[in-house]
Every structure is written in structure tokens, then in C-alpha cells.
Design goal:
281 residues, mainly alpha, two-stranded antiparallel ribbon, 2 strands, globular
């Protein structure tokens, strides 16, 4: 959909997944670092399967929205005697959603079947992000300069995410790569919204001059403000996850991260009490 809603819808999906990953992966990493019980790992695997199901639902919503809006193609790829193409922009968005839906299917099968090779879910996700990048690269050729530039900035986040996700195929459960993926997904989400606001002015206001170089400079700077905000969100969510894990460990009486000094002091005092008891005997 070549309108604000057509950018806000995928932007919302990416933003939700990015925010979720920025909470999920710190919790998974910190909990496994403290306590490596198998049921904890199984719990996170179930979460991955549910996440795949949600990805499938989001993809179906996106495909249906692109095809069956009032001015959509309604599953017609071409029409008329001249066989003119029908709403190829909607078809490109539909293709993007299709590959993310396939990624969700692989996520579910990775959980329910031991036959699926480990890492195939990350490979499929990387492929989906790469397809998204290729589609958007050819999406804006021969468009006005401002339109091309604002979408080219989006490609930085897209191809960065595709490369980092591909590395996760070989470096499984790497918290740095997982947090980076969460960050660039947040950026994709917020920047889709930014594109919609700049190109379509949903709340009114002055129209952006598509030939003014100052607008190009500002949007480049604004893109990296989005990046800085994503880094701040990652830092905040990691800190909150750390505090949550610490609180849970204190409440259950289990050892928790960062208490090495206290445990050493406790061990020293117990040794001293044992020696004192031996001297008395």
C-alpha cells in the first residue's frame, strides 16, 4: 500500500518483534548463565515456537491487507487485453510478508520436529530479511530523490540484520548478535513509521520538498537518532532483565549473578566457625 498505513503496518510488526527480542534474549542469556537447568531451555524453546506462530499470523494479516484493501490487486497480477501489471507495489509487500510467514513456519517445525537441522530457523529468517532488502532496493528506483534516500537508509538496517542473522546460523545463542538483531529490527519499525510520516503527512502539515538537499541531510541525521534510541532501549531492557533475574534469585534463595564477593565472605566465616569448633574440642 503506497500510503501511510502501508508503512505503519509493517513498522508496527517490526517494532513489536524488536522490543520483544530486546527483552527475551537478555532474560534467556542471564537465566542460563546462572542456572543451566534443562527445563529453562525447554521453556525458551516453547517461546520460540509461539513466536513463530505469531510471525505467521502477522504475515497473513499483512498479505491480506495488501491484497484486499479497496484499491488493492485482489490477487490479480495483470489485467486487461494488454495484460498490464496490477499494483506491483502491493505485490512486492505481499512477497515480503510471504517470506516472513515461511520463517515462522520453520520456527514452528524446528520446535515440534527433531529432524529439522539446527540453525535452519535463523537461515530462513536471514533469507526473509535479505528478500525484504532486495525488494525495497528495486522498490524506489526512478522515484524522487527524497523518496529514494529515505528508503536507502532503511536498507542499512535491513542488510545489517540479514548479515547478523546469517552469522547466528553458525554462532548459535550469541547474545551480542541476538541483541544486534533486536536493535536493527527496532530501527526498521521506527523508520517505517518515519517514512510514512515524511512521505504522506498523516496528521497534516507542510509537504517535504523532495529536491531540497537540507531535507536529505536532516533525514540522514534523524536515522542515526533512531539508531541511538534503539541502543538506549536495548541497554534499558538488558538492565531491567538483569534486575529481574537478581530479584528472582534472591526470592528463591538461589545463587545469583554478582554475588561472588558475598559468597566468599560467607565461606570464610563458615571456615572460621569450623576452626573455632575444632579448637574447643
Amino acid at each position: 500500500m503506497a500510503n501511510f498505513k502501508g508503512h505503519a503496518l509493517p513498522g508496527s510488526f517490526f517494532l513489536l518483534f524488536g522490543l520483544w527480542w530486546s527483552v527475551k534474549y537478555p532474560l534467556q542469556y542471564l537465566s542460563q548463565k546462572v542456572n543451566k537447568k534443562s527445563h529453562r531451555i525447554y521453556c525458551f524453546q516453547r517461546v520460540d515456537a509461539i513466536e513463530g506462530g505469531i510471525k505467521i499470523i502477522f504475515a497473513l494479516i499483512g498479505m491480506l491487507a495488501e491484497q484486499f484493501v479497496p484499491d488493492g490487486p485482489h490477487l490479480y497480477l495483470y489485467s486487461g487485453e494488454n495484460r498490464d501489471w496490477v499494483k506491483l507495489m502491493n505485490w512486492q509487500h505481499t512477497t515480503m510478508y510471504l517470506f516472513y510467514g515461511l520463517s515462522g513456519v520453520v520456527d514452528v517445525f524446528t520446535y515440534i520436529s527433531q529432524v529439522v537441522p539446527q540453525g535452519l530457523d535463523r537461515l530462513m529468517l536471514s533469507m526473509a530479511v535479505f528478500v525484504e532488502g532486495c525488494l525495497f532496493y528495486y522498490h524506489v528506483l526512478h522515484r524522487p530523490m527524497l523518496d529514494q534516500h529515505i528508503h536507502s537508509l532503511l536498507l542499512i538496517a535491513i542488510f545489517s540484520g540479514a548479515c547478523s542473522t546469517m552469522l547466528e546460523v553458525f554462532l548459535r545463542d550469541n547474545i551480542v548478535l541476538e541483541m544486534f538483531r533486536a536493535g536493527v529490527t527496532i530501527i526498521q519499525g521506527t523508520w517505517f513509521w518515519q517514512i510514512g510520516v515524511v512521505l504522506f503527512q498523516p496528521w497534516g502539515g507542510l509537504v517535504w520538498d523532495e529536491n531540497d538537499h537540507s531535507n536529505i541531510m536532516f533525514l540522514t541525521m534523524c536515522f542515526f537518532w533512531h539508531w541511538a534510541a534503539a541502543v538506549a532501549i536495548l541497554a534499558i531492557n538488558y538492565t531491567l532483565a538483569y534486575c529481574c533475574i537478581q530479584r528472582c534469585r534472591r526470592g528463591s534463595g538461589e545463587p545469583y549473578i554478582g554475588l561472588g564477593v558475598r559468597q566468599q565472605k560467607r565461606d570464610t566465616s563458615s571456615q572460621a566457625a569450623f576452626l573455632n569448633g575444632s579448637d574447643e574440642e
